[in-house]
Write a structure and sequence with these properties.
heterodimer; A: 310 residues; alpha/beta; Rossmann fold; 8-stranded mixed β-sheet; two-stranded antiparallel sheet; 11 helices; 10 strands; 36% helix; B: 218 residues; 6 helices; globular
Chain lengths: 310, 218
């Protein structure tokens, strides 16, 4: 089996597991932190998207390390190799991010990069601790007024009834269930439904990192109690003036092919709400996972930007 | 008082039976930082059915989780665990418990027969709309092994409660609960979310004894 993992990982030769791992206490629970590149190098903090994990930076992280950075990512609570929590919120995730940032011990402001949900998180870090943030790189996590691509119509009584009840039903079962076990290839195929543009090789690679092998098969490490929804009290339009109000160097990169997992914010929607002086790239023929579909291009843009911003 | 512990998500929730009775249960939801009282509130004396109280996560005899992360939706699901245990109920909510009760009524409109909204701590949360983002912090010397959880006190006093979100849940009640008068407001306090809820015909002003008596007869 060890050999199977090695064969799968070798099929994505540009990916590299981290050079170091450590754990950070974020208030009674621990998150797993991984690093690429020398500890002497200037740090850049990487925030993964919802339902992802730090291993999704196994391609971009090494490219940033090769360019002279100490690239640091962490598994958000309940994700990857971090502890499971009893409770999850956006605000707690941002708090955890600030503690991981503090664990770098950097005297200088640190550049932060986030994909999707992680993009929203690093935007908020730059709002709440601007003096600690050297620059923001947002990868396909720029908000819009419409909200997530998969959001339901909350004025539809029957649809909202179904969503609210389904979430509560999930919670009733959640303390008693495990994620479904499958073969390694089966997990990759299931993820492909949500990530249709990513290669089978990469999705299988992700399974070797983000899933574990139990006696009855492979299952994702992510906390089985986590689930999308309910949409809740939060409104996407709240994030817009906050984004516009950031005053740290800002780089936005979006894919132009809409995918279920993303915000699907178009360049026309993004440009008017970016901070003054922001740089912006819309990548043609690219979906939501810009850093996985086009790692070299994204790394080149990010490294060029950080070289000028820091 | 008889206490049952419900295993729900990662918490053990204390469900207290404060008084036995025959008929539909009344479930009391406490305010922020509080716990289920040791005895059934005197205002429930006339209630024919049993009277229960639930300690929310991080409160009373329920689990004290690490690392915070509280939302009213998570507390709503705590109350839903009580529904799963004791079946359809009438809700009496104080402060935070009143707001959580409204969310639950909107989400389980066929399993709740009436909600009484009463004053209590944590009634307003963080208000109707966001203020400047901030990093909440609890110092390690504040964190012990006793409830209430300091994270709950901070986070559930700063969560945003948009009026249209409350109105959305009342609309679900009006459409699906099969009750002409479903939500009794007996509070003096009128957070913005409650003002919005009160625009619906299924919400009415009352006093606590009248409201409970009315729901008891259903």
């Amino acid at each position: 089996m060890r050999n199977e993992i090695e064969v799968i990982r070798a099929s994505v030769p540009q990916a590299r597991r981290p050079d170091r791992t450590r754990r950070v206490d974020v208030g009674g629970i621990e998150v797993s932190v991984v690093e690429w590149g020398s500890e002497e190098n200037p740090p850049v903090l990487l925030a993964h998207g919802g339902f992802d994990f730090a291993g999704t930076f196994d391609i971009l992280g090494p490219l940033l390390a090769e360019a002279g950075f100490r690239a640091v990512a962490w598994d958000q609570r309940g994700h990857g190799d971090s502890d499971l929590a009893a409770l999850y919120t956006w605000e707690a995730d941002v708090r955890d991010a600030a503690l991981v940032l503090a664990s770098l011990g950097s005297a200088d402001p640190v550049p932060v990069l986030g994909h999707s949900k992680g993009g929203g998180m690093v935007d908020q870090l730059a709002e709440v601790i601007p003096h600690r943030i050297g620059a923001v790189v947002n990868l396909d996590g720029i908000p819009n007024k419409r909200g997530f691509a998969q959001k339901i119509d909350r004025t539809d009584v029957a649809a909202l009834d179904t969503e609210l009840a389904a979430w509560l039903d999930h919670r009733r079962r959640a303390g008693h269930t495990l994620r479904r076990a499958d073969t390694l290839q089966g997990l990759a195929e299931r993820r492909r439904v949500m990530n249709p543009r990513l290669s089978v090789e990469w999705l299988q690679y992700l399974v070797t990192v983000g899933a574990r092998e139990d006696t009855d098969g492979w299952r994702w490490k992510i906390d089985p109690t986590l689930r999308f929804g309910p949409s809740g009290a939060w409104r996407p339009e709240w994030a817009i003036p906050r984004l516009r109000g950031l005053h740290v160097p800002f780089l936005g990169i979006v894919g132009t092919i809409e995918e279920e997992m993303g915000w699907a914010t178009s360049p026309d929607e993004a440009l008017p709400i970016l901070p003054d002086g922001a740089e912006f790239h819309a990548l043609a023929n690219t979906g939501h996972f810009v850093h996985i579909e086009r790692p070299e291009d994204v790394a080149e843009i990010v490294i060029d930007f950080l070289g000028r911003a820091l | 008082m008889k206490t049952t512990f419900l295993h729900h998500v990662r918490s053990q929730l204390a469900l207290h039976e404060l008084r036995e009775g025959s008929g539909r249960p009344l479930l009391v939801l406490h305010g922020l930082g509080e716990r289920t009282p040791a005895m059934a509130p005197s205002v429930t004396e006339g209630w024919a059915g049993p009277v229960f109280g639930l300690d929310f996560t991080g409160h009373g005899d329920s689990t004290l989780p690490a690392g915070g992360g509280y939302t009213c939706e998570a507390l709503m699901s705590d109350a839903d665990a009580a529904l799963a245990e004791i079946g359809p109920v009438t809700l009496l909510g104080y402060g935070l418990g009143a707001y959580v009760g409204l969310l639950l009524f909107g989400s389980r409109p066929r399993e709740i027969e009436g909600l009484v909204i009463a004053d209590g701590s944590g009634f307003d949360g963080g208000g109707a709309r966001p203020t400047s983002s901030k990093l909440l912090a609890v110092s390690s010397d504040q964190l012990g092994d006793t409830t209430p959880d300091p994270w709950a006190l901070l986070e559930l006093a700063s969560d945003i409660r948009p009026p249209d979100y409350a109105a959305e849940h009342v609309r679900q009640v009006a459409a699906l609960a099969d009750m002409d008068k479903a939500i009794a407001v007996v509070s003096i306090g009128r957070p913005e979310w409650l003002e919005a809820a009160m625009e619906s015909d299924v919400v009415f002003e009352s006093d606590i004894a009248t409201a409970l008596s009315m729901f008891d007869r259903l």
